[in-house]
Design brief:
Residues 235-265 are annotated as: Disordered. Heme binds at residue 448. Belongs to the cytochrome P450 family. Its cofactor is heme. GO terms for molecular function: heme binding; iron ion binding; monooxygenase activity; oxidoreductase activity, acting on paired donors, with incorporation or reduction of molecular oxygen. There is one protein chain. Strand 3 (16-21) and strand 4 (24-29) form a beta hairpin. The strands form 5 sheets. The protein has a 6-stranded mixed β-sheet with strand order 2-3-4-13-10-5. A 4-stranded antiparallel β-sheet has the order 6-7-17-14. It has 19 helices and 17 strands. By secondary structure, the chain is α+β, with helices and mostly antiparallel strands. The chain has helices at residues 4-7, 32-40, 56-59, 69-79, 85-88, 92-112, 134-150, 157-169, 181-196, 210-240, 260-263, 270-281, 288-301, 304-319, 321-337, 356-368, 400-403, 423-427, 451-467, and strands at residues 2-3, 10-11, 16-21, 24-29, 46-48, 122-124, 130-133, 153-154, 257-258, 374-379, 383-385, 388-390, 395-399, 470-474, 482-485, 489-491, 496-501. It is globular and about 60 Å long. The chain has one domain: Cytochrome P450 (Cytochrome p450, Orthogonal Bundle). Helix content is 46%, strand content 13%. Bound molecules: protoporphyrin IX containing FE (HEM). Protoporphyrin IX containing FE binds at residues 63-64, 76, 297-298, 301-302, 305-306, 309, 370-372, 375, 440-442, 446-450, 453-454.
């Protein structure tokens, strides 16, 4: 595996790395004590870096990109209830149904064998099956879920992809890559962000793909405006007609529709809380633009991170088939013991806590391949960290990637060993030798608000796929796994694997 992030660091000492970039050198802290110190002082000694401001052009002032601490804290308070476990538990059926839809697609691809595939998201593999880009497939799935669970909107990303794929196989399409508008738009922006965040001393219009980037910014704004317009119309419908809970289902520029299944739930999702807060506090405190910014933020933060993690997990399971079988056996035993036979569609939120090995596989993937590998902060005043002087205004990095592979903390640091998260691994001496050295969702005031959402979705998704007999085979093709850090970490050329069914 090619990991630029891993190779680009010079070691200063066991705690600190130095990363040269153009004329600047940046300290990267990798010891848990230092990282926990830095992140716990968010909003006091340190602030989110100005580099994040580059993302404001398309995310606006949403939770992730908001640099003003009091405004951030107020919005976080507004949104916290939508991420409480008691509410998230009600979302399990959406996670399970999106994963089931993906399982159908994978099963079909596995059965299709070495079909000639013309698009860049599927190709025939030398091992005989049809290889798919799992990062893309999971991205479509997570987009569908974030739409249904947080904004009552059905992006229909997986089914759009499926329809286009079928049309191609029947020769009814021109053979070009299936396009799901919302996914393409987010991808354009993520890729362009890599260039923007390099802060190169050239006019931005000279950067590669700049005009595509501006077009994608505008497209995203109009998709979000349409989602909010539909949502408001639905809320007005439901409040004026208490007898009917179904929503109208008109098509939108995102390729999806307002979700009738979503509207039958209460309005206590992310957009619901935002609209309620706007009613209570007034549009001068929570403007329409602010609501749109949070919607865009959730689309990015809630899809790219989880889809990358799930794709990397599939990659590790392809390399460790015995672990895939063990996780599948755990799911089968749980369903059997609770009288549900083999019906994975009945998996529910409470089951996640009964799947320790599946959870360990997710955790070990988050350790080796954190979607947020390096968190940049700017010092608000002169300060010393681990004996190194940091001046006011200087950027420093909490390097999660390096901490979670620190050789003095993690036995066999580069090996994917899910058992290290279980009592058996502790007995084998695989547990970390320091506290708080595993922070894939960060910590402190700017930590991930979607942590429980993501964990629930990932555990249930893996359980559904493995429970349906899906396994992952290494793609015999020539594609290299190349990891790049943009807004979050992603595989530049995808994560190509061959689905099989046992
Ligand atoms: C595997 C999945 C995920 C990982 C590894 C992850 C990781 C992270 C990390 C490391 C941060 C801190 C970034 C920083 O301080 O610069 C963060 C922030 C954030 N995440 Fe996640 N995340 C995941 C999934 C999600 C999901 C599913 C959502 C929403 C549904 C979400 C929403 C957010 C938001 C809004 C922030 C900004 C929080 C703030 O500044 O208050 N994330 N995430």
């Amino acid at each position: 595996m090619h990991e630029d992030i891993h190779l680009a660091m010079l070691e200063l000492d066991a705690r600190v790395l130095d990363v040269p970039w153009l004329w600047k050198h940046t300290y990267h802290f990798r010891h848990p004590e230092d990282i926990n110190f830095i992140l716990s002082k968010d909003g006091q000694l340190f602030a989110k870096s100005q580099r994040v401001a580059q993302s404001q052009e398309f995310l606006g002032q949403g939770l992730f990109s908001q640099l003003d601490s009091p405004k951030h804290a107020a919005m976080r308070q507004t949104l916290n209830p939508a991420f409480r476990m008691e509410y998230l538990k009600q979302l399990d059926k959406f996670f399970v149904s999106s994963a089931t839809q993906l399982a159908d697609i994978l099963q079909e691809a596995a059965a299709a064998g070495p079909a000639a595939a013309s698009s860049s998201s599927s190709s025939s593999s030398s091992s005989g099956g049809r290889a798919l880009d799992f990062q893309r497939m999971f991205r479509l799935m997570t987009l569908d879920s974030i739409g249904l669970t947080s904004m009552q909107h059905d992006f229909a990303a997986l089914s759009t992809w499926q329809q286009q794929q079928q049309q191609q196989q029947q020769g009814a399409a021109d053979g070009s890559e299936p396009t799901v508008l919302i996914e393409r738009t987010l991808q354009h922006l993520s890729k362009a962000f890599v260039w923007q965040s390099l802060c190169l001393p050239v006019p931005r219009a000279w950067l590669p793909g700049y005009s595509d980037y501006i077009a994608a910014c505008n497209r995203l704004d109009s998709i979000v405006a349409q989602i909010l317009m539909q949502r408001r119309a639905t809320s007005a419908d439901t409040s004026s007609s208490s007898s009917s809970s179904s929503s109208s289902s008109s098509s939108s520029s995102s390729g999806g529709s307002s979700s009738s299944s979503g509207s039958s739930r209460s309005s206590r999702d992310i957009v619901g809380y935002l609209l309620l807060a706007q009613q209570q506090q007034g549009p001068d405190v929570i403007s329409d633009a602010a609501i749109g910014d949070e919607v865009k933020t959730m689309m990015f933060a809630g899809s790219d991170t989880s889809s990358f993690t799930l794709a990397m997990l599939a990659h590790y399971l392809a390399l460790h088939p015995a672990a895939a079988d063990r996780a599948a056996a755990e799911v089968a035993a749980l369903l059997q013991d609770t009288g549900r036979g083999r019906d994975v569609s009945q998996l529910r939120a409470e089951d996640a806590a009964q799947l320790p090995f599946v959870t360990a596989c997710v955790n070990e993937t988050l350790r080796l391949s954190p979607a947020g590998p390096a968190i940049t902060r700017t010092a608000c005043q002169d300060v010393e960290v681990a004996g190194y002087p940091v001046r006011k205004g200087q950027d420093i990095v909490a390097n999660m990637y390096a901490m979670q592979r620190h050789p003095e903390i993690w036995p066999q640091p580069d090996a994917w060993l899910p058992q290290r998260w279980l009592p058996e691994g502790v007995e084998q001496g695989l547990a970390p030798k320091a506290k708080n050295a595993f922070l894939p969702f960060s910590t402190g005031a700017r930590s991930c608000i979607g942590r429980s959402y993501a964990m629930l979705q990932m555990v249930l998704t893996v359980a559904v796929l493995l429970g349906r007999g899906i396994r992952f085979g290494v793609d015999g093709g020539s594609r290299e796994l190349r990891l790049v850090k943009g807004l979050s970490m992603y595989a530049e050329d995808g994560v190509w694997l061959v689905p099989t069914v046992v």
